Amino acid sequence: EPKRKAAFGSVGRRIPYRILHVINQDGESLGNMHRAEALKLMDQHDLKLVLLRENVEPPVYRLMTGQQIHEEQLKRAEKKKGSPKTGMVQKELSFSSAIAKNDLETKTKQIAQWIEKKHHVKVTIRQAK
């Protein structure tokens, strides 16, 4: 099972790395420190540790307030809404040029429903023999 990317939020006390690069709530770098030091800092200032980048060495964590985490989650959700959908549904309908009037009306209604649902519709008309 592939490892899923966790949602943006506090990691709590479960930090799998020994050495971390920590950034304070104002965005200033506090440098590399041991996991225990970062947890102590987190408790002293009543903040939460949030993983920003784990593909670098050492991984980057940021100390944030609950309000900052909430605002960041809202920003990411808004950005995700704005991006085009990757799973765009495309519907395809194919019929002959000798189609009966009733069948044509039925298929036209179906196309209208798909367009209302924001599906991409592809219509193919074959020439009758």
Q: Secondary structure elements and their pairing?
A:
Layout: E1 19-23, E2 29-34, H1 35-44, E3 48-53, E4 60-64, H2 66-82, E5 90-96, H3 101-116, E6 120-126
Parallel strand pairs: 1-4, 5-6
Antiparallel strand pairs: 1-2, 3-4
Explained architecture:
By secondary structure, the protein is α/β, with parallel strands linked by helices. It has 2 domains: 19-82, Roll (Ubiquitin-like (UB roll)), CATH 3.10.20; 90-126, Translation initiation factor 3 (IF-3), C-terminal domain (Translation Initiation Factor IF3, 2-Layer Sandwich). Helices cover 33% and strands 28% of the residues. It is built from 3 helices and 6 strands; from the N terminus they run E-E-H-E-E-H-E-H-E. The chain has helices at 35-44, 66-82, 101-116, and strands at residues 19-23, 29-34, 48-53, 60-64, 90-96, 120-126. The chain has a 4-stranded mixed sheet. Strands 5-6 form a two-stranded parallel ribbon. Strand 3 (48-53) and strand 4 form a beta hairpin. The longest helix has 17 residues, at 66-82. The mean pLDDT is 81. This is IF3M factor. Keywords: Initiation factor, Protein biosynthesis.
